[in-house]
Amino acid sequence: MPAFLRTLISPLSLAGLLTIMGVGLSLGLPSDADGALRWGVLGVFIALFLAYDHLPPRTPLRLASDVVQALLALWLAWLEPRVGTVPVLLVVLVAHLAEHWSPRVVLPTTVVLNVVLYLVLRHSGFTQPLLIVAIYAGFQAFAALTAHYARSAEQARDALARVNADLLATRTLLADGARDAERLRLARELHDVAGHTLTAMRLNLRALAADPALAGREPLVQAERLSGELLGDIRRVVQSMRDERGLDLATALQALAAPFPRPGLRVRIDARVRITHPMVADAVLRLAQEALTNAARHGDAATVWLDIDNEDDGVRIDIRDDGQRAERIREGNGIIGMRERLAELHGTLELARTDAGGMHLTARLPA
Question: Key word Transferase present in the record (predicted)?
Fold first, then answer.
């Protein structure tokens, strides 16, 4: 489903749009220039309302959209004060603000809007403008609290999904590490027990074959030959079991991204990459986790690409997304945590933007 349509049919957006259309119906059909102006103002308000969620989050562009919507709602209240439904636009606007901004921003903004609304109604000749503003302020508070709690529930759900994904990925790595440990234990047992016993048996068979009374006996020669072949087979099995395949990062990374419906994660790991140290594998998982979180929260990305390649004596991890960010990427706690984690492993991190405006992370770690 396209992102625009998915946003449009979300419960809060759909309720807001229906409320705005209700205000439009109360204005009636435009019969003169003033009516056309009112509908033009309302049309611009609707366009900004629909486009808001597709603007880069927490940027001057979104802030400008909020200011313009507030001015449009107050202007329409000035143009059509007698209808009585136009202040409902401020209820929708405050709910929208509460959905995307913190209470520290929403509360003073709401106070300013209601003060201006009071002045507009008083100038228009209302006998009790304070009562009207108080009634609409109550609606605004209710709408703001509803949007705030919906936002908090969504953030809690996302946090729970991240924790669950982290547990799944860690469990995958632990299971893979346990399989490697068990394979190593079996290799040692085969080498130390079966290998030792077969070697002793071959020595005894050779001693018997050297006895003149038994020399040349076919069963003895065949037993000595089969024991040699069996010892060689065991050595090859032991060697193959001891060969280090590295931890299964691909499965762990997919488990990390599985609970997130958006963005999707596309992983490519070079066949020559071998990561055997658990701390290095954990650092790669944390990099991918932070990249997914940043892509979803700050870039509205649909896809994250993660490539792991060999480089000199270590590995290079390239992570990029198709999101849209501001020209200057600020390093928050997540990026700082990445750098600190990599520094503990003598790794480095480079941060840049893709040509399309997404984030591009390049990490280098010793394998």
Answer: yes
Q: Does 47 fall in a domain? A: yes
Assess whether 327 and 250 both reside in one domain. Answer: yes
**Sequence-separated contacts (24+) of 269-273 with Cβ below 8 Å:** 269/307, 269/308, 270/308, 270/309, 270/310, 272/310, 273/246, 273/249, 273/308, 273/309, 273/310, 273/315, 273/367
Per-residue confidence band for 112, with pLDDT thresholds at 50, 70 and 90? very high
Q: What is the rounded distance in angstroms from the CA atom of residue 69 to the CA atom of residue 63?
A: 10
Q: How many CB atoms lie within 10 A of CB 87?
A: 26
Structural domain includes residue 169: no
| Structural domain count of the chain | 3
- Tell me: do 18 and 117 sit in the same domain: yes
pTM over 0.85: no
pLDDT computed for residue 153 by the predictor = 83
Structure tokens that stand for 125 in this block:
């000749």
In angstroms, the CA 206 to CA 216 distance is 12
What three-state secondary structure class fits 219?
A: helix
Two tokens, residue 283: 């650092």
- CA–CA separation, 102 and 109 (whole Å): 11
Which string of b and e fits 204-232 if b means at least 16 CB within 10 Å?
ebeeeeeeeeeeeeeebeebbeebeeebe
**Residues belonging to the chain:** 367
Structural domain that includes position 219: 177-242
C-alpha span between 247 and 175 (Å, rounded)? 10
> Are 231 and 267 within one domain?
no
